[in-house]
């Protein structure tokens, strides 16, 4: 078999392996191959190569044209099915793949620059100075706040001490005043008792003995209180009364 005929058979096999062609009726495929100048033997060989053993029976039962039917039925060899060839990619497929890969690459680069690169790059000198100044300001503010708090605590402590001292002084003054009042009351009570004793002592010598009788309650109370007893004789009451009435007339 010449090389040109072999190339026709190869083309026929590739044609028959096409999925779109396999969905069409077998008679139409055979008619198309005959229109391309293939003989019945060549068509049968192409069917064997494209179909394989599973469709050998169907290929033998296909009604070929009358001048080729006898040759096809006389062949008892099974038709071998081969896998369809890989479809060829044209420039459109390459263009779509390039656009898709380029879009993915651009997205990866954009995400890397926006999120990953800032985390990996080292800070500049200006940024370091700015951060250092910010930390210094924060430490200064914290130190001032602590100083203010210490001053407030000292003021509160001083105020508490002053209040405590004033309260203690007031307590002492109150206690001193209470003691002074108590002493004054005691002195007044002592003076009253002394005056009462003096009055009692003055009443007894100045009173005439003639006017005091043993039956007088005052004399009895004074005598019993001071332990005084009257043993001398006294003038009767009726005589004292008459004597007192006569004196103004004289």
TrEMBL record:
Q: Where in the cell is it found?
A: Peroxisome membrane
Q: Where would one find coiled-coil regions in this protein?
A: 165-199
Polar residues bias: where?
218-227, 236-250
InterPro entries from the UniProt entry: PEX14, Pex14_N, WH-like_DNA-bd_sf
Segments passing through the bilayer: 94-112
Instruction: Please provide the record's keywords in A-Z order.
Output: Coiled coil, Membrane, Peroxisome, Protein transport, Translocation, Transmembrane, Transmembrane helix, Transport
Extract the signal peptide range.
Answer: none
Q: Which family does it belong to?
A: Belongs to the peroxin-14 family.
Q: What is this protein called?
A: Peroxisomal membrane protein PEX14
Q: Which organism is it from?
A: Cetraspora pellucida
